[in-house]
Each structure stands twice: as structure tokens, then as C-alpha cells.
Amino acid sequence: MMANLPPENFAEGLGRSLKGLRIGFSARLGFDVEVDPDIARLTREAVDVLALLGAAVEEADPGFADPIAPLMVLWASGAALALASIPKADQARMDPGLVAIARMGEGISSAAYVESLLYQRNTLAMRMNAFHDRFGLLVMPTLPLPAFEAGCLSPQHGRYGTDWTRWAPFPYPFNLTQQPAASVPSGLTRGG
After folding, report:
1. pLDDT for 146-173, tens place per residue?
2. Distance CA 54, CA 63 (A)
3. Which of 61, 92, 109, 114 has the highest CB neighbour number within 10 Å of its CB?
4. pLDDT under 70 in the chain at which residues?
5. Beta strands in the chain, from DSSP E residues, in sequence order
6. φ and ψ of 137, to 5 deg
7. How many CB atoms lie within 10 A of CB 77?
8. DSSP string, 142-189
9. What is the C-alpha separation between 49 and 100, in angstroms, rounded?
């Protein structure tokens, strides 16, 4: 079981030199995901700047399969618990996607929940700990696509579709591992 550690002050080292910092750069996190060419270019340019500032950058993937299955078990179970005390009539006025995930969570067994939490989540966390024994940072795109229209919950067109697991495959592994993460804008696409 993962311990709740006291929070670190990650702003503490912002003024230090990057000389000697080992950075792992992953273009796709090892997943079979098509990254928009502008996003790939901007991420590569950001990594090149880190190298110019003295960091030792190496292309490296952490080496795990897409952990969407345990995430969905944990997320759906949590949604089911959150909505359990809300009357069905009130749920009809709620976000349909959240209600659908909660319905899915109602059918998840406690054994599946515990297996996702204690085995799959911890296995992923140990894999990332081993990665960070070699690298101080992992740099990668946050999303494989450019920003889409404000006010939309998902891209309204294009190859990624509206299922967030397809258009946002990179952040959720780190929600599972509970690692600190930052999304840093690195520039504008050719379309602005």
C-alpha cells in the first residue's frame, strides 16, 4: 500500500542550474498514440532548450502498458460511491458522462477494486520509481493534440474522437502513481 508522504516543496530548486540533471524524454510514453506534428515539434524544441541549459537528455520510455483498465476501475468505483447518496431523479440532471461512469462503477467487485489499487497501481508506481532512479524528470507532451475550442469537453472533430482516453492518454498514468506533475506551455502551434 502506498504511504501518504508529506508534500515536498517543489519550488525550492527552481533557481538551480540544470547541469547534471538527467532528463528522460518520451515522445509518446511508449503508447501507440499519434502525436500531432506541431505538438511533437514544440515538445522537442522544449527538450532541446533543457539540453542547452545543461541537462543530460536521453530518449527513454518508462516501460509500462497503457494503465487505462485500473484507472477506470478506480475512477468508476469512486464515481459510484460519490453518487450513491444522490437520488436517481437528481442524477438525471447531472452530467451524463459522470452518471454513466458511476453506473459502470456499481458493477465493479471489491476484488477488482483492490486488485487495481494494490497491485496494478503499486506496480505502476514502482516502475516509475525505478525510472526516476535513472532520471530526475520525465518530459513528454501533456496531450497528443493542440488545444481545442474553449467550452468543449472534448475535441469536436479530428482523429482523436470524443473519448478522453483517446485524446488525453498521457496524464492519467501519473494520476494513478500520485506523482507530482506539471503541464508547461511550450509555444504555439502553426495555427496559433
Report:
1. 988 888 878 877 777 777 777 889 998 9
2. 26
3. 61
4. 1-5
5. 22-25, 56-59, 137-139
6. -140, 155
7. 23
8. S-SS----TT-SS-SSSTT-S-HHHH-TTTHHHHHHT-----------
9. 43
